[in-house]
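Re: that chain you flagged

S.,

Sorry for the slow reply, it's been a week of failed gels. I finally had a moment to sit down with the sequence you sent. For the record, here it is as I used it:
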Amino acid sequence: MEKTAFTIYLATLIISPLLFGSVHTYAYTLMALGIFTGTLLLVIKNVRKDLKTGTYRFQLPNTSLNLFFLIMTGFLIIQVIPLPDCIVQMLSPEAWVVQQKSEPASSIVVNQSQGNVWASLSPYYYPVRMSIIRFTVYGLFFFGLIQVLNSQKRIELAVFLILTIGCFETIYGLAQTFSGSEHVWWFKKTRYLGDVTGTYGNRNHFAGLMEMCLLLAAGYAAGLSERRRKRKTVRKPELSLRAKISKYLSGEQRFNKRVLVIFAGVAIGIGLFFSASRGGILATAGAMLFMSLLFIFRKAHRRNGIVVLLLFLIIAVYCLHIGAEYPIGRFEHLNESFEARSRYAKKTLDLFEDYKLAGIGVGNFRYAYPRYQAVEDRRYYMRHTSNDWAQFLAEAGLIGFCLLLGLMSYYVLRTMKLWNMRRDTLAIGLGAAPLSAMAAVAIHSYSDFNLHYPADFLMFVAIIAIGYSALHLERHRGRDRTIYRYYDIPLKYKGFLALVLVSGFIAWAGIWSIRHFVAECYCNTVHNYSLNRDPNPSLEELGKAVSWDRYNAEYWYKLARELMRVRHPEASKPDRDIEARRKHRMEVIKALEQAVRLNPFKAEYHMRLGWAYVYLWRLLDHQQKWLSAADISINRATYFVGDINPSLHVHLANYWIMRSKTINPAKPEWKTAWARACWHYKKAQGIDGTKQQAERIVRFVWEYYPDEVFIRKVLSDKHHVLLKALK
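Prediction finished late last night. Pasting the structure tokens below so you have them in one place:
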């Protein structure tokens, strides 16, 4: 079982970066299922029968990261479990406000008092659930990999495979870039043309993979050196000819292996450099300097520090010889890029200010950020801000951020203490790799979001596991195995209950991984550029997607849009039964209300729901209820809309123009509706000041108010010339 699990882990580690960095559903699902399978085999292996007592016991590795994975997983769970309203209001007042806006407007009109409602700290459950699953996968991979890396042979095999991946990525990327093909497997690149990206679609995340592989190569090359020993005055016995030959060949083999590793590191470094990722280059330089200082501060291993610096120098010479004008030229525009990324980070910190303690929920950034996004970035859909530190601070709040820093500091201190105690060269060399990789990721995360690429995070965990196993490797007195501490848990009562709970949690993660994958097969909502998926699935496919994963709000929203598209022509026929049209509209409203209930951050959901209530009012003649519900939904959309979507502002303004015609002009409510319409129209023209946008506004307002006075009020000054066309 152990050998099979070892094979599965290595195969998963190899395949993950090759499949576009595992950012697509089929790739990260395959990665997760591989790790779940390997974990299942190890769980079975770790359940053993005590021959003396006859009881069954379970062995669990006792590592410096146990506390990290336990507490961080617990924190993620706390973000999504329902809590009393008083606790949510105390920890995250803004999250409570957002949760209140998820309640269907129609039910609020009927029942004004919502009472004591339990809510979660994260307004949208689905992204946090996916974060919990992925974090569980990474944790299981670490605990499983350290158990199967139980000998020097296996540790070195894992290292060689990682270096092979790095070399392949470099060779493949260089061939694709400089041949003019510019493909990633079957997909033709549309971005980062001229940059080496390997099998990735993004140069920065490719650079993140390369920097970790390069640091592993440097640490392994240092670990293959022989530690200089003090000379003794005692005369050594004369070796036999056979012993001399054996010693020579052994030294030559070690030397050749070291040269091979350095060559692999140079190849990986060239790929990193020609990715033209400025953050990756700077992070690698800083991390290699850090690694060299680690070795230099240990008197017996100062030569290894020189080896690391020499490797860096060789890479630089090769790159300059090949031609480094373009990568170096990108640093000339560093200030422009820094200005944009600083703006992203500043707006992310504005988001953090509203969810300061508990955050918005890990994974919820892309849904909450549009409300804060700068108008200068209106052409971009920000799935992640280009600063992992700022994004995690916004998603996890001060509580989660302090937990992360504290637990990682604990791991670093424990690792440094063990590293200083070791004298074995391989343990010292590979033991420095995780610390250096953490330094590289910490620096690179200031300008990119590498750890949101599953393959990069998996590689990061693999290097930490390799370093941990190497630091616990014993290679003297005939031993060649890792020595760990284990929790030996008797499977009686509490132990059995704990094993059932943990196994149930892992099973839950595995089941939802499969359900998520099947749902995405019917309706694709995860960004996927490697497969040509239909963006508009049928009603039947949308229904199946919802049945497999009912917590994804986008499935419900697409279902509502498809219902409107498919059935609307038939529903609008004059001879169609009123009851049938009402039933159709109720189906649309039900889907939209569910989308809003699941994800209240999306202004578009609220806007569509408001208009759906309006159409229902025209059928049922319940003006007070449905128009009041529509007003609530439109006000909610205004709360979340932000400054980047001119089309959405136009739709909201159109609503208030329509709404004003249902109000007596003598009432104050008419002035309020008209003022809101004007505000949204001016906002839309401020974001998108094109003539076409202004013409669309004029056409709509003219249908309700065919008067130049009213048209002039909704137009910006520079568009008043359009009035001449109406005369």
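What I noticed first: Residues 228-234, 244-251 have pLDDT under 50 and may be disordered.

Talk soon,
D.
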